[in-house]
Design brief:
The protein is mainly α. The protein has two domains: 439 residues, no CATH class; 138 residues, Alpha Horseshoe (Serine Threonine Protein Phosphatase 5, Tetratricopeptide repeat), CATH 1.25.40. Helices cover 76% and strands 1% of the residues. The longest helix has 37 residues.
Length: 745
Amino acid sequence: MRRKSLGFSLSLFLVALFVSPLIFFTDRTRNPYLIQERILQTLLVFVLILCALKAFKNRRLLLSETFIDRPLFIYLVFIIISSVVAFVKYPDYALAFKDYSFRAILTFFFSGIIPFYFASSKTEETGARSIRRVIIVVGSIAALYSIVQFARLDFIWPSNINPYGQRSISTFGNPNFLAPFLVIVIFWLIYEAVLNRMSSFLILLLFINLVGLAITMTRSAFVGLFAGCILLGFLFLKDKELSKSSLKSIAKYLIAGIVFFGLLFSFISPQFRERAVSVFSPSRMGSALTQRLLIWEASIAMFQKSPYIGIGWGNFEVFYPSYQGQLLLKDLYAPLRTHANNAHNILLEHLTEIGLIGTLVFLFLIVCYFRRSIRLSLKADPKSRLLMLILISASAAFLVDNLFNVSYFFPIPSLIFWLNSGLIAGHIRGLSDSPNRELKFGKFAYPLLILAIGLLSKVLIHNYRYFKGAEHFYTGFKASRSGELATAEKELQKSYSYYPRLVDANYEMGNVYARFAVADSGYLDDAIWAYEEAIKSNPGYDEIYYNLAIMLIRKEEYASALENLKFALKLNPVSHEIARVKAGLYSQLGNYSDAEKFYLRSLEIEPSNPLASNSLGGLLERREEYRAAASRYIEALFASPDFTAAASNAKRVSSILTNTNEDVLLVLHKETVNHLLENDFSAAEATANGALDINPAYEPILLLLAELYFMSGEYKLAEPLYQALKALLPGEKHIVLRLEEILQK
């Protein structure tokens, strides 16, 4: 009976390992890997229930004792402590932190702790070999599918679902998740190939996984694989007992495969070639590197805000936009705004989320892990030592990848890292015959069983509700995009009823109600409620604050609207639209000095901004600064020639300026004409500009200046003038003909 139960729990564990990385539904949830995590956690819950029932039957629980138990336990405890402290420390973020930290801790538990200890409890004979081989099969299937995608022969998803260009995502939804998974599979295949005397089939699988890795085009994984291979070579050469011939053979295959496929893909894929070359020349990464620097600089600022305890596990995404906003004012970073979920550096993410103390605990865990595993491997027989050195090198490759990647914090790639670590621990236990920890329950068996099943049931319910919330959100999102607003509202309300803290669902629901409110102002309160729920779910999206402010303006709740625009501009200080709306609201409230300040800020961000130019013109006209107003109206026409309101405003102010300065303007007009007749274009331009200094919207001079540029062949200067004149002088055939001539040229 015992063997049957153990066998069933192992079988279910292997099913979880096989199924979860390969499920990839693109039409059920917006993030396909969300389903993979739900499947993984659900199946592992049932594995734990089986273990709980077995422990209840025996009135005791046997836990495998590993060489990193203490640092791993301290690490887990500090993750929880940091998250609790952050929840208390930042009450304005409490609901968001509660959700993000809970899900991140759950991910660490089900993709890290459980796989680690389950794998560590197995020896080669009792399941470790099966775990490796199942993962090798999974990696090979995913690699094959990535090759099919790269060749554009996808028979599962006929439409283009890949947002990464030629970078294959396979079943993982993201090449950056697939790549580290394949890196570890490649190391495991190295062991199998050496063990089986360079089996042709295993070499073929090795090449398939190498190709799969290559076409993810994940530079950090390439560096990780290289680092892992260097470490393996160093450890292998240092060992005097291990045979060097097998490693030399596999090294030849590896080098040949890397060189051949590297050259092949460099030839057939410019994207691969560019990304591969940029590994050796970071300057060629361009905006990708600059954006990474932006994320890292914001991460350092976040760390400095809470240096010792951090902001809580999983909360990077919530805090990041606030710190990015300050940096976007730098010209270097201004065009690279992003909503980063992670720091793209495992050490920086630990520093920001669990602070310096937590990061030191993590580093202590890593040092213990490598130091003890390498030292203990020396006591093993050659075959076992070979396996351990390969597993150690695979872990190193994964961690090096995560100096630039995010995969440590995502369920499926994190799963294989902790499985790899657990296999090392299990192998060490098998060699040293380490005893299990025995926890006897006695009379507490029933209460503990009920507690365990209760907690695991809560995890099942969480996964179900989270999945249903995400599913209804995506259905509602698609309905909203296709204009089926009634269906969208119904689906998004269902999403909220299942899982209220989905920021995307709440935001989209606010958008739906905002569209309803165009025809029926009764929906304004619904839109405001939905946007506020979205902010509670994640206060890091400037567009939510902006949309909420628009609804509040319609409700005439101006103070609240200004507050939300303030938050929006803090998160996104390079948004000309937010600055323009804030300026307009200040103008509406009679605060003209602040209105002018934000109109100018809007135009500084985006000079070709007709609404801001026209509105600023109106503000200046109200102050009777007619020349400056006319200049702004013309500026608006240059940016948008069909802007009839700007044309009307320009004509009105021009009339005032002409009446005031008519004699001077007539003289300057006559002088400009004379200069043109004499073909003295330079003098004509200077005289015309002198007239425009007096009246920037003076039509006769604008027309002469346009003609001057046209006759001198400066069509790029002539065209905007003719476009503006077309609006100022509608029906003027000469202007239309000139524009047609410019178009032909």
